[in-house]
Amino acid sequence: MALMPHQPNDLMIRKLDSIFPLSDEERGALQQLPILLKGIKADREIVGIGERPAQSCLILEGFTCAYKLSHLGKRQIMALHVPGDMPDLQSLHLAVMDMSIASISSCTVGFIQHEDLRRLCEQHPRLTAAFWRETLVDASIYREWLLNVGQRSAYTRMAHLVCEILIRLKAVGLVEKWSFQWPITQEKLADALGITAVHVSRTLQALRADGLIRMEKTQVSVPDWERLKEAGEFDPLYLHLQVRKGA
Amino acid sequence: MALMPHQPNDLMIRKLDSIFPLSDEERGALQQLPILLKGIKADREIVGIGERPAQSCLILEGFTCAYKLSHLGKRQIMALHVPGDMPDLQSLHLAVMDMSIASISSCTVGFIQHEDLRRLCEQHPRLTAAFWRETLVDASIYREWLLNVGQRSAYTRMAHLVCEILIRLKAVGLVEKWSFQWPITQEKLADALGITAVHVSRTLQALRADGLIRMEKTQVSVPDWERLKEAGEFDPLYLHLQVRKGA
DNA sequence: CGGACCGTTGAGGTGAGTCAAAGATAGTGG
DNA sequence: CCACTATCTTTGACTCACCTCAACGGTCCG
């Protein structure tokens, strides 16, 4: 259990509301949702492949990832999660986990019982749509990663990933002046991009040499967003961030 | 417009029912759903990236794919669709298409208005769950493809893809004696696996030489399922086919 | 019978992998 | 506070799975 800077429910409400405007009543119902907080150290499995969870989780602080292993033991990270994300919302309707979720950094995670989510969805059909939409955005991100891993060079892939994380962190207010905390090792970047850790090292050096990113410890900053975007062939369409027309 | 061997609604109902048992009332409601049939030639775009469709489609005969292009014009196919699939159900909640859908072979496609789907979901909340679940299985397949493209050799990837298509076709009764129609060119296989068409040719030769697949024209057959499964590191868990316990 | 695809083959090239060792950094405990 | 360790990053030399380019053969269909 950990102390939180603000109520965990608020983060979820703000995120759902930002892309799917909610009524006061719906916000109130979400506010009532029981969320069990838990502090988790880095590199711990949170849900494992093959399990049948009775709850879904909500990332509050830190980073997590979804991954699978090949028979040779090589790991593919299929998604990175930032605060506000619900990595295994899918388990609400897919009984058995087909991937594992693990912490990347130390983090705070909230757990919500499926039972409670189901009741909420029954009573507020528009919330069903909001949660459904969240899982659809996840799917869209998987698609973009497929394009990334299948067709782009290591250099472009890396630039693309940095762009994505920047934008997603910006959406939850965790970016200041094009700079953000990102405690991720090169080995994990390698697993996310489908290259080796050695090649991640060389690729990051190239990006730094080209002035596209700057790194100090776990802090990443982007000196020239336009050039990084271009290098990463990044178009934020697939994140489906703005639904409100004209927003 | 094309003649169909049976009502298009039946195919959808059978598929939803197989993993998410429906009541008679729900089946009746689905039966009423207006579906507009259309025959489509091979290699035609059905929905384009950036569009805002007011309908979703249902594949009835033939094959389609979802794809995106990199800036260099390289194409990544992110999913293959077989009869019974609804490739752009996501557009019900994500206004703008983030990928394109195109026919791979000549095919018959049914179109369902979002308006009608929304009304159906409002009146039958359990159908909402059934459709939601369909999109979650799509997402699970994207994840498996990420593992495939990111971590496995061309040989393993190809074997895995053949396994997946076989199982999915089997589920809709389109496989007979480990053999099925699969009118797909090597160039499209290349785009789906993230390798070149030349390498697809060599990889298929290797699989044939090893006795894992046999091919005549557009017919593929699998002489030894167990060995192909092993070669492709294939575990059907991610397709989430059996929900009914003990089925 | 002729063109348009599609699949095959060969030779040579390259982006990324592998292996191994050395440097940097961070965490731990005395 | 420092010594000790474990982990992470960097570097260099070598290898290889897959790519590129180019030519050729098959097959379908008007």
In angstroms, what separates the terminal alpha carbons of chain A?
37 Å
Strand content of chain A: 15-25%
CATH homologous superfamily assignment of the largest domain in chain A: Jelly Rolls
Instruction: List the secondary-structure elements of chain A in sequence, H or E.
Output: HHEEEEEEEHHHEHHEEH
Q: Number of DSSP helices of chain A?
A: 8
Number of domains of chain A: 2
Protein name (chains A, B): Crp/Fnr family transcriptional regulator
Organism (chains A, B): Billgrantia desiderata
Pfam families (chains A, B): cNMP_binding, HTH_Crp_2
Keywords (chains A, B): DNA-binding, Transcription, Transcription regulation
Topology diagram in text:
2 copies of one chain form a homodimer.
Chain A: H1 8-19, H2 24-32, E1 36-40, E2 45-47, E3 55-61, E4 64-69, E5 75-81, E6 100-103, E7 107-113, H3 114-123, H4 125-151, H5 154-171, E8 179-181, H6 186-193, H7 197-209, E9 214-216, E10 219-221, H8 225-231
Antiparallel strand pairs in A: 1-7, 2-6, 3-7, 4-5, 4-6, 8-10, 9-10
Helix pairs in contact in A: 1-2, 3-4, 5-7, 5-8, 6-7
Chain A binds a DNA duplex (30 and 30 nucleotides) through helix 7.
Keywords (chains A, B): DNA-binding, Transcription, Transcription regulation
InterPro entries (chains A, B): cNMP-bd_dom, cNMP-bd_dom_sf, HTH_CRP, RmlC-like_jellyroll, WH-like_DNA-bd_sf, WH_DNA-bd_sf
Protein name (chains A, B): Crp/Fnr family transcriptional regulator
